[in-house]
Input
Amino acid sequence: MNENEISEALKSKFGNNILETKTSKRRVFINISTKVYKDVIRYLVEELGFNHVQTITGVDVGNFIEIMPHLGRGVTVTVKTRIEKNRPALSTITDIVPGASVHEREIHDILGVVFEGHPNLTRIILPENWPEGVYPLRKDYTPEQPVPMKEVS
Amino acid sequence: MQKEELRSEDKKSSYELFFDIPVGPQHPALKEPAFFKFKVEGERVIGVDADVSYNHRGIEKALEQRNYIQNIYLIERICGICNVAHTLCYAQAVEQIHGKEIPPRANYIRLMIEELARIHSHTLWLGVAAHEIGFDTLFMYVWRDREVVMDLIEMLTGNRVTTAINTIGGVRRDVSDEAKYKVKKGMDILEERLKYYKKVAINDPTINARCSGVGILKPRDAIKLCAVGPTLRASGIKNDVRADDPYALHDEVPFNVITYDTMDVLARVLVRVDETLESVNMVRYCVDHMPSGEVKIKLPLSPPIGESVSRVEAPRGELIHYARSNGTNKPERYKVRTPTFENIPSVCEMLTSKNGYEVNIADIPITLASIDPCFSCTARMEFRDVSKGKTWIWSLEELKAHCKKKGI
Output
């Protein structure tokens, strides 16, 4: 399947819930509404055969957080969906692709998104003593600046 | 309660209890900080917990605070061994946002350096694997021959390890005719040696005894757990980013995707040795067919607003970079997913005894090494496996159900 066939297949299946599609060489970016997120992933994995989750990216975009699973081994389909930052919750896709588990946990750590239905949403990359509720990849987090070394007299 | 359950299950065994063996974070068997907790019943490994988050350095946040040129050198330091793959992936991601193609000569040089780095990484791995099975003679031999490719990389880029050859818009250095001659000479030496190592890997009784039938990963599990790279190809699945999603003129330079279907550590050894031989041929092809012309185009420091997904077949497997720019000279978001991170669920699967498949404590080092783990790349990972007690008496269906429940 080439890029345009994929975006056409998705458009005809989900209609208005596909907000925007953008294609370039072996890349498909689709913007979808959150309510069909899981159905789109299920359709891509089970019907179109995109059974490899490359990774899931999370981006802080002001009042929203954008979640983007990248699927596929040849053509890469990036599914974009936006969730509210003050109530960041999205259903999990680990029941469709077990390999997505670690990526969801990573986003949970760094952006504070709760994946509903995830069997084991525990801390994965941050140290044990990291304070609760501090999400380093949100834009309002400023990392500690290194202090210049003092001269020893 | 769980303990009681375990005891009653295991009355027949001479071992009444299970033991946890902690390995790491600092341990002679591991070359990098990682922590593995093996649950063992006598010599059998029945489960593993892995924690490889000891190297987390917050690079993704740091990338957002530096400009695109500074980021090349930061990206390179994600991992020493696959630094070429990282800078290549980064440069491609930024060029995709710019929407510019780089000159063909630059692409040829990129590909050549990438393949030389693959030779260096795979020979390094072969040495480490030989060391893990106690075959130190092979280790010394392989690392001696690896110096050939290290010297070539130093000659071409100015540095043995962190090459910094790829830059946004092309490569930093051109390749002279004299250098081409030396590269070809080096490839002749390497080809001969690698063919010898392949013969050793196939015929040597030590390697066979330690690697054959160890660390099995079935193709179905490999796909389910999203395995990548040589780990996936050793399970018989023909998948390579260079072939499926060609970049840097990989569609012009001929090569074969190597697969083996025995699914064990030996298959992973042979996949890597054969891939190294393919790389030797690709380097030769690049030297012979390199077009003349520019090696770099000048691109503005700030790319336009946009996003891109860049993929590279690093020595350890598929490497993904996602970039999003906001029109300034610093990226809005930069995401890196390294191959070892993707392969950790698979290695946990390999290290769990079940359904007649036995894993012994002595198999742990080579099985761990067989995915060519690179924890400084990964540095963001903690995985909990199916070792909650009953693994060895489950049917495959039950295990699958459990995996699904646990989200593994």
